[in-house]
Every structure is written in structure tokens, then in C-alpha cells.
Design goal:
The protein is globular. The strands form four sheets. The chain has a five-stranded mixed sheet with strand order 2-1-3-11-4. Strands 8-5-9 form a three-stranded antiparallel sheet. The chain has a two-stranded parallel ribbon with strand order 6-7. The model is unreliable at 1-56 and 467-473 (pLDDT under 50). The chain has helices at 2-5, 17-23, 28-37, 40-43, 74-88, 103-113, 126-132, 140-146, 149-153, 157-162, 186-191, 203-213, 234-243, 262-277, 292-297, 311-317, 352-362, 365-375, 385-395, 410-414, 427-443, 451-462; strands at 62-68, 92-98, 119-122, 173-174, 180-185, 228-229, 281-282, 303-307, 322-325, 336-337, 342-345, 417-418. It has 22 helices and twelve strands. Helices cover 42% and strands 10% of the residues.
């Protein structure tokens, strides 16, 4: 989730846009030859490649391409970790490839062309689209052979099960466990005499606090402080619908749209009213298209719904005391997001066994600790929580001294984590239709939430058509 949203290009020097474009037209062998002569992170940005031609022979050195985030902190970490992998796997050479900026568009193109990386990361609603189209290797055989029950039990069951298609194809394994919680500015809440959020809060409590916090601080007639903010995206809105007792997708069949049912419409209306009637929850218009964590750090939000993946950027940028609490309870249920970031193997790889060895390394405790230490990514393995917490407190001893990081584990520990609900037949079209409707409802206040009735009908019609990865998003 984090990596696909980053706009920071790590490519340097000669790795400009025209070179990236021309590189995509190279053969696999030519591209890897280029990677051997120039740093892969610089040359390969924005392109995808698959397994080397030729059969693998015993003792032959296999070359794999591993594609993952391009965020600023990631390339250095991954290169260091791959040195460990190479030391233990002398016959496998892995070249790290940063995700293209437009991952959700470019990966389907590479998969269709047979030039996708051997091993890659995916998440959210686009990873299942790749699996639905047959571009991901079924990992079930490898998991049964190599992973014990204790390893699987260390992952959130909801997150682990989400990386299967409905017909049982296991297309991924957890990368990290991003969880939503409610950040709050302690200084601001103290100043306006608002109690800190806690696990007993309902959405009524949340609304009361937002109304007390939202205001025009400089008296110019324009609101410049909002109570909170939420991303307008598939999984964040779904968490609201789940909290109201509804669903995006019928759990029983995977093809029936339920975004037009009363519970879903009530959740959408609660959000719409907070943004456009009460104006206590910021919209992207209010923040001039600045996102959630950035707006919170800038002091424009007293609270914000964001994930553990934003923890480091918030701690690094804030000049105020920070608190974090579980998401408020909804009218029907408590729900929080467990991200579905995972590692997968391209079904067209020439070397599936070698690719699996790399995936085992990527899901290992040492790789989880490396991501947790480098950028505070909440590990997928629950057993690594003490390590993660220790890294945070060590690097930010003052700001994190009394920060309740267990708020991010509250859903996992109490069984109310949810994952993105996915349509089985045509998820790509469903996302496109829903995003268009949400834009009119929440970003440009032109339409009532009843618009979702039309959107749901269109989504339902799309499920009768064959979904294609090229339609994604």
C-alpha cells in the first residue's frame, strides 16, 4: 500500500524517463546485461522483466528480478538484505527493480507481455486482479512443503486468508501488517479541552470531538482546522461500511454488489455529512489535495485516521505530542483495516523454485525486522511486535515514550480486522466505477450518496463480463 502511493523516484543520473521507456523494449537477456553494468535501481526504474531464457541446470547460477517499493528508504535496505540472501544462496543472483510510478497500469502490461519480474509486491484491490487473470503463481504447494503451522499462526488470519482467491489459489504471502488507528494531536486536544480518544469511543463520541475541534482559528471567515480526515479509497471507505454492518461485496458469492444497501448508504451518508454539512472532517478540497498524514503533521487536523505505515513520517514531521487510539466503534460493529500487502511470484517465471527461495527470505523474521527498523513498518508476524516497538522508541525516545503502539494491534488481537473485499469476476471495473462515484460524492460535492445505487448496478453488470487486468483502476 505505501510503496504504490509514493511519488519519490529513486532513479538517478541516466535513469530518466526516456531511458526507462526504451528499456521496456529490451529483451530479458539484454536488460539484465544492462543491469550488470549499471546499478539496477538506476537503470530499471519503471520497467518489468521475467525469468531468464533457458532451462535451469544443476549448479547453474539463476538470475531473478525482484520488484518492490521505490520509496526513498527502501532501495538501500533491500540491497543490504539481498547481500545476506546471496551469501546463503550462491547460485541465485537477485536484481532489485523499483516499482514503476504507475504500478497498477504498468504491471498488467508487463504480465500480458511476458516481461514481468519474477517476484514482486502487490496489495489492496490490484493484487487480486492480477491473480484473477492468472498472472500469479499458486503458492499452495510451496507453503505446504516449507512453512510450518507456527509461521502461519504468526500472521493475522484475516490478512493471510485474503491472499487466496475464492477458488483456493494462494497468490501471495504477507509482507507487513498495516493497520488503521486514530492519531491525535495531544497539544491541540489539551488546548481545546477535548478528552483523548480511547478504545471505548463510538462514532458519536468521535463526532462530538470533531465538532469541538473544527474551527476558524485566525478569524478570516475560512475554516483552517478540521477535526479529522479519511482517505477516499476502496479499503478506507469499506471499513466504514463494515462498521455500519454492511459490505461492498456479498461474502457468500463474491459477485454481488452490496454498496447500495441501507447499511452501506448510511455509512456513506455519515461521511458525506461530516465533510459537506458539518464541515468538521476535511475533504481533499479543504486540504488542497494534501493527504491525511501530511495534513495532520501540518497542524490542519486535530485527529486523523491513518495507518501504522504513516508512523515514521508523522513522528519525523510533527512538532507536537502525538497519541494513537483504536478506531472508534461503529453503530453495528468495530472494524479496522488489515492491509493485504504481500509478495507474489509471476506465473511466467522460468525459475519458480528459485523465486520461492527468495519469497521465503522476504517473509522471514530478519526481513520483517529490517523493514520495521528502516521505516517502522508494522511486521506481519505478531511475534515481532516487541522488536518493532523497540525500534520506534529507540529512534524517537521523547515523542514515542508514552505512545500506545498496541492500538495498531487492537484489531488483530481482538478479531475485528477486515481486509479489502474483492469482486471475483471483474474487480478492475468495480474499482473504476466506485472511484468515479466517490469522487462526485466526497471530493466534488455534486451528488447524494444515492448515486451508489446506480454505481452498484453498473458494477453488477460488469460482473457478467470478463474482467481484464488492463482495465485496472
Amino acid at each position: 500500500m505505501v510503496g504504490s502511493r509514493s511519488r519519490k523516484d529513486v532513479a538517478k543520473g541516466g535513469a530518466n524517463a526516456s531511458l526507462a521507456k526504451s528499456t521496456r523494449r529490451l529483451s530479458r537477456r539484454s536488460l539484465l546485461g544492462l543491469a550488470l553494468s549499471v546499478p539496477a535501481a538506476a537503470v530499471l526504474a519503471g520497467c518489468g522483466v521475467a525469468g531468464l531464457p533457458g532451462a535451469q541446470k544443476q549448479g547453474q547460477k539463476v538470475q531473478l528480478v525482484y520488484q518492490d517499493w521505490r520509496t526513498e528508504w527502501f532501495p538501500a535496505m533491500v540491497q543490504t538484505m539481498l547481500e545476506q540472501f546471496h551469501a546463503n544462496h550462491p547460485n541465485i543472483r537477485v536484481f532489485y527493480l523499483p516499482d514503476p510510478e504507475n504500478l497498477e497500469e504498468k504491471m498488467p502490461e508487463a504480465m500480458q507481455a511476458g516481461t514481468a519480474p519474477d517476484v514482486f509486491q502487490g496489495c489492496c484491490a490490484h493484487f487480486p486482479v492480477w491473480a484473477q487473470s492468472g498472472y500469479t503463481l499458486n503458492l499452495s504447494h510451496y507453503v505446504r512443503a516449507d512453512l510450518d503451522k507456527s509461521t502461519i499462526a504468526d500472521w493475522d488470519p484475516v490478512q493471510y486468508k485474503a491472499l487466496f482467491t475464492r477458488d483456493g489459489v494462494q497468490y501471495g504471502l504477507p509482507k507487513y501488517h498495516g493497520a488503521l488507528a486514530l492519531y491525535y494531536n495531544k497539544d491541540m486536544l489539551d488546548n481545546y479541552r477535548v478528552d483523548y480518544p480511547n478504545e471505548s469511543w463510538s462514532h458519536d463520541d468521535y463526532l462530538t470531538a470533531m465538532k469541538r475541534l473544527a474551527r476558524d482559528r485566525d478569524g478570516d471567515g475560512q475554516r483552517d482546522l478540521w477535526g479529522s480526515m479519511v482517505d477516499i479509497s476502496w479499503d478506507r471507505l469499506q471499513v466504514y461500511v463494515n462498521s455500519w454492518g454492511g459490505h461492498f461485496v456479498d461474502p457468500a458469492d463474491g459477485v454481488t454488489c452490496r454498496m447500495d444497501e441501507p447499511a452501506a448508504l448510511a455509512a456513506f451518508e455519515w461521511l458525506r455529512a461530516r465533510m459537506w454539512d458539518d464541515r468538521v472532517m476535511a475533504s481533499l478540497q479543504d486540504t488542497q489535495k494534501v493527504g491525511t498524514s501530511e495534513s495532520f503533521v501540518a497542524g490542519r487536523l486535530a485527529m486523523v485516521e491513518d495507518g501504522s505505515w504513516a508512523l515514521k513520517s508523522i513522528l519525523n514531521g510533527a512538532n507536537f505530542r502525538i497519541g494513537v487510539a483504536p478506531r472508534p466503534k461503529g453503530p453495528a460493529a468495530r472494524a479496522t483495516l488489515a492491509t493485504t500487502d504481500g509478495f507474489g511470484i509471476y506465473s511466467g517465471t522460468r525459475y519458480p523454485e528459485a523465486a520461492w527461495e527468495l519469497v521465503k527470505f522476504l517473509i522471514s523474521p530478519q526481513y520483517g525486522r529490517a523493514m520495521a527498523s528502516a521505516n517502522f513498518l508494522q511486521p506481519a508476524r505478531a511475534s515481532l511486535y516487541p522488536d518493532w516497538s523497540g525500534y520506534v522508541r529507540e529512534q524517537y525516545p521523547n515523542l514515542a515514550a508514552d505512545l500506545d503502539l498496541s492500538a495498531f494491534l487492537h484489531g488483530q488481537n481482538n478479531g475485528y480486522s477486515v481486509v479489502a473485499e474483492v469482486f471475483d469476476k471483474n474487480m478492475a471495473a468495480a474499482r473504476q466505477i466506485a472511484n468515479s462515484a466517490w469522487g462526485r460524492m466526497f471530493t466534488l460535492p455534486q451528488a447524494p450518496v444515492s448515486l451508489m445505487k446506480d454505481a452498484c448496478r453498473e458494477i453488477q453488470e460488469a460482473q457478467q463480463q470478463r474482467g481484464g487486468v488492463g482495465q485496472c483502476c
